[in-house]
## 1
Amino acid sequence: MSKAVPHPDVSQINLSALYDALSDPIRRRIVRMLGDGGELNCALFYTLGSKTRLSYHLARMREAGLTRTRVAGRRHFIRLRTEDLERLFPGWLDAVVASARIEATTPDAQLDAGVAAAEHGLELG
């Protein structure tokens, strides 16, 4: 039996919480990945840190109203709340995803991604 994950109602989403959720570079990378890939299995984010650390970051994003989590058995699928955020703040999420894409191309971001991948025994090609 799947356990439901709590999400804030659309009326509870505010910009302060959203910007706070985006204050960490790992969370901005998650936003970029979701912006590029739609709904993703949370296991795809394991290169960004430990499961405990990742759970913390995903919870912060969900609690702010930035993402929605769907549970299917033992797997968790994450997606951006695109429709809700577009209705509340037109164009805001597109700008955030575009900015996260630009940030991902900086040398520091590429170095950090390589270090994280190496910690998990992965190679970036």
## 2
Amino acid sequence: MSALCYLKTVHYIIHRDIAARNFLVTQHGAVKLGGFGRARYVHDDDYEASTSEMISVKWSAPEVLVTSRYSTHSDIWSAGVVMWEVMTRGQRPYEGLSAEQAVLYVMNGGRLDHPNQCPQPVFSLIRSCWQHRPEDRPSATDLANRLHSRVQLDLAESVIPRSSTHCQTPTSSSVATDSAATEFESERTSRQMSVKQPDKCGDGDVDDRSATSSSASSSVRSRCGPQQESTGSAEDLLSRGSKIRQSLNKFAIWKPS
């Protein structure tokens, strides 16, 4: 997130290709943003690309899919997809959907599902990056601050307070308590490392949104044809803007003005 904060401070560099594949990890564990081949320097935080330009469909915001308009807000959408990639250990977004199906899914209000290992507060933060209106998404600075606060809170909660600092002779009750705590911690670790089936989110509102997204996904698949196997082809990742808008026009989701 610090990379996005920096890009906004230079007023403005729009990256336009933020995805997990463009983040590099150094030998010292530092994560750096690369892939600036499609970046643009603009003065008013707005860049309209050619309608025939290739688009990274599954990482792109609705305004990019519809009008090829990029901004720091569209970069935030892509950053949300990157966080989803991290939380799913590198799964491909919208797995099983073609580029055309993914576009229709997003424009119908569909969003990526809640990863099994992702805490609810973190997923709520990720979803805030996928607001349909660009101005409703958090800024890079706000996103970085909220992530930092979340990490600090998790670290604070992980610290086990001790009643005293001096050594005491263990009693039978303290041994039993320590044994129970060790057993609980072992069981919790085992559950975290095991493969869990998808369960309900902690927030009822998110459950409703997930149900809506699943319904939208089913509708997209029925309108676009049978679900396709993920092939990893370039067509699955990139598509021309003009081709995307032909699909939206065909299904009456968007019409040229």
## 3
Amino acid sequence: MDDKTSRFPFRATPNSWFHLLWSDDVARERFLHVRAFETELIAFRGRDGAVTVLDAHCHHHGVATQGRLVGEHFCCPVDGLVFDRAGRCVGGARRSTAAGGVSGPAGAPSLRRWEVREQDGMILVHHDVEGRAPSFEVPHIPECSSDRWLPVGRIEWTVRSHIQELVENSVDLAHFALLHNFTELARLVHYQSQPHTFSVTIAAPKLVFGRPRPTELTIEYHGMGVALGRVTRPFPFLNVVTNLPVDSEHMRLRFNLFVKAPRVPVLRHVMAAGLRWHVRHDVEEELRVLEHKRYLERPALAAGDGPIMSVRRWCQQFYDLAADREAPMTSAG
């Protein structure tokens, strides 16, 4: 899982929190198979409502634990090993006389249990290539549970790219005019980074439903897997952007859209439908560009391109935590 990808000079999956599933994907006392981080996982919601995520494959024969769900235990369909929600083998092993074979539950290796947080309608999983505990948390997003904010909808894509491309893209000022209908070069209002988070604010007129309107956008990353895009002008709007590494060539990009609820109820449905259409068409050309983009370790940047190299340095901490401790993490450009 820690190999560098063929297109990029870094691992496919950095050490960070990632959005594995929506909360409503996993029903109580049911489990799902999910592909992420170049492996197969199972997600299970117990009787108590808590979600558990485990490696999907038994370490005895490498079989996916999809045979039977017995209460709150998973049963391997080949050798009968039974695993509890902590990933421990608690029974059911067939005896083996082969050298190094499993002789019973005491000799059976556990399934890896992943660190999970469920918040704001998302099931977040923490990935660390060495299995270390999380060094930061993703904060609660108040708009997701506020009556004053209207859920507009969710949009998902599977994209042939690496999540670092999307992170760096958030501060590439030139592309906003070329790919997102800004009518002028975006102006950098603010950029600041700290350990595990950075924020950037840009401003410029943007075509919104055919008319140029003054627009101000703040993008705030928490780790490399969760970003909040907040528009304050021309109207309050939130996009919760999440990136999930699937394998060495693909990521799953998800948008969860919210808008400040209009006071007139009939306008809510009109605004929701219009914004979903606008956001989808605003993004899909950019995704096609990313799928065919070549990653350059030493790009020939020009004045006005934005703090791309600062963000690239910020990203290093999620591949090498020692480098993070040695380097200053705040920059103005």
